[in-house]
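Below is how a single chain appears once it has passed through the pipeline. First comes the sequence as given, then the structure the pipeline wrote out for it. We keep one example in the README because the format questions we get most often are answered faster by looking than by reading.
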Amino acid sequence: MAEEIMQNKAASTATDHEYGGSEIQVLKGLEAVRKRPGMYIGSTGPRGLHHLVYEIVDNSIDEALAGHCDHIEVTIEKDNVIRVSDNGRGIPVDTQPDTGLPAVTVVYTVLHAGGKFGGENSGYKVAGGLHGVGAAVVNACSEWLEVKVKRDGHEFKQCFRRGEAEGNLQDLGPVEGSETGTTVRFKPDPEMFKETTVYDFDTLEKRLREESFLNAGVRITLTDERELYTPIDEDGNEGEPCYRKETMCYEGGVRSFVTFLNQKRGLDALHPDVIYLHGTTDRGEAEIALQYNSSYKELVLSFANNVNTPDGGTHEEGFKSALTRVFNDYGRSHNLLKDKDENLSGADVREGLICVISVKLQEAEFEGQTKAKLGNTEVRTLVSSMTYQKLMEFFEENPAVAKSIFEKATQAARAREAAKKAREMVRRKSALESTRMPGKLADCREKDPTRTELFIVEGDSAGGSAKLGRDSSIQAILPLWGKMLNVEKARADKIYGNEKLMPVVQALGCGIGDEFDIEKLRYDKVFIMADADVDGSHICTLMLTFFFRYMRPLIDAGHVYVAQPPLFKLQKGNTVKYAYDDEEMKVLSAEMPGAKVNRYKGLGEMNPDQLWETTMNPDNRVIVQITVEDAEKADEAFSILMGDQVEPRRQFIERNAKYANLDV
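Resulting structure:
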C-alpha cells in the first residue's frame, strides 16, 4: 500500500523536461527580488507593503545615528505614492570604483551594496541596514522610483522603473547654501502587491513614533496628502479642513517611550519615575527603560540599531536572565526571601512590567532581511552585566520602590503556586471522571485533528440549533452560557476551575500558558460564534482576550476564526437571501423590491438548516481568520478594552468608531 502511494505521488510530480546546464537559471540584477519578494520584505501583503517605507526610513535613521540628520519627513501622496526626505549628508553621487557607476545608482540597483559593511571604517559606525539590499529591494518592488540628492553644492536626480535605471544620473544644478539631504519617491508595484497598495496611516505612525522615541531629539513628520479631513478639538469644535499630520520628537528617548506605553494603556504605575539603565563597551551600547504597573501582563519591546526585534534575541535574553537574578539576590540579601522560600521565576519578576530595550552595535547580526531577531552573542553579556549592576544599584538607592516591586513579584509567585495546585486538582478530577471532555461538548466523529472544527457557541439555544444543523462528521459544538471571566483582570489561578473557560481548555486539549502544546490541539479550526450584537461582540472579545493571553500560539498558527452570522433574511416568493451588514441589506433590497425582511436578534432565532446554510457550511459561510500582525498593537487594544480605566477605553472607541458596527 505504501509503495502504491509513493508511486502515485511520484507520478503527480513527475516531469519529462530535460535537466541540464541550460535549465540552471542565473537571476541578474534585481530579478531575484521580483521573483521572490517575500524573501526580502516578508510578504506581498500589507505587511510587506509597509516594509518598503521602513527600509527607506531606516536609511535616514542611520544618518541620524551617525550624527548628520535631525529631521525626517514621510508623506503619503495621492495614489499612495510615498515620499521620504531627510536632511542628512545625501547619498554619494561620485563614481563607485568596482562598477564604474555613480554610487547612488549602485545603491538602488545592486543587491548587497552600501556604506555599512565596514564598521568604524565605513560611512556608519552603527546602522540598522546591514545587508545592503534595502534601497535596491524597494526599487525592485516599485512601479517607479525617483531619488533626489543634495550634496557637494548640487542637486542630483535619477529615475528607475521596476528596478531598472531610466537614463543616467542628472545634475539639476547648484543649491543654495550648504543644504544637503536625500528625497526618495516611489509607487509600489501593483503587479507585486496584488492584495493592496493602500497605505495605512496608523501603521506608519506607530513605526515612526517608535523611531522617534529611540532617537531622542530627532524630529519625524508624517503627513497624509491623499484627502483632507476635518479636525475636532477637545470641546467638539470643528477646525479648518487640512491634511492629517503628526510630528514626533521626544527628548526623553526610551524613558518617554515607556511613559507613553503606560499612559496609552491607562495603567497604574507602581512607582512614579521610569527606571533607566545605560551601559557601553567598545562594541556598542545598551539602554533600558522599565516601569512596573498594577496589571498582570508584561510587555517587553526590544530594538537593535533602531530595528524592532519582535522575536527577541540575545539582548532580551540577557535582560531577562539578569532581571531574575537581581530580584532573587536582592531578596535574599535583604531578607525579603526566606531560606525556605523558592526563588522567584522569570514570569514572577516580569508581571506588570513594561520595558523597552535598545542596543546600538557596530556589527548587528540579524536573522534575515526582515531582522526579527538579534543574534550577536556578545550582546547577551553586555546587557546582562549592565542590567544586573545598574538595577541592583537602583534597588539599593531606592529601597521603597524596590519593596513595592518585590511585593508585586511575590504575589505573582503565590498566584503561580495557586495556579499549579488548581491545575493539579483539575487533572486529578479529570482522571477520576469517565471522560475528559466537557459534558456539553457535542464532539465530531472524525479523529484526524487536521480535518476537524470546533464551534464555541454563545448560549444553549444557539448551541442546540448548531448541534442539529452541523456536519457531525467533522464539526464539534461547545455551547457557552452566562458571564465569562475577563482574563485581563485575573491571574492564571482564576482560570483553572472556571466553569466558562475550563470546558474550552479541555475541549481543545492543548493546555494554557507555559504548558500550552499546539501538537495536542484536537481541532484544526476553532470558531467563535456569537450573536451579531453588542453582547455577542463582548463575548467574542472576552474569548479572543483569553486566547491572546493564554493560548497565543493558537492565533499565531492561524487556528482561530470568528463566524459571521447574517443580520437579515430577505424572502420574496421562494427566493431567500441573507445580508451580513446594512450595506449588503440595501443592495439586496434594491434587487428584491417588496421582499419580506427579518432581522435576526440572535443565533437562537435561526433554525438548524438556516444556521448551517449561512454560518457553518464551508461552501457558503462568511468567516474572519484572527491574525496578529502587530503583537504590541493587539496587546494595547486588549489592555485598553478589557482593563479598568474608563477614559482610555472611551478614547479608543471614539478613535475607532468608524470601524465599528453598533447594534442600538
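The mean pLDDT is 84.

See the next section for the split statistics.
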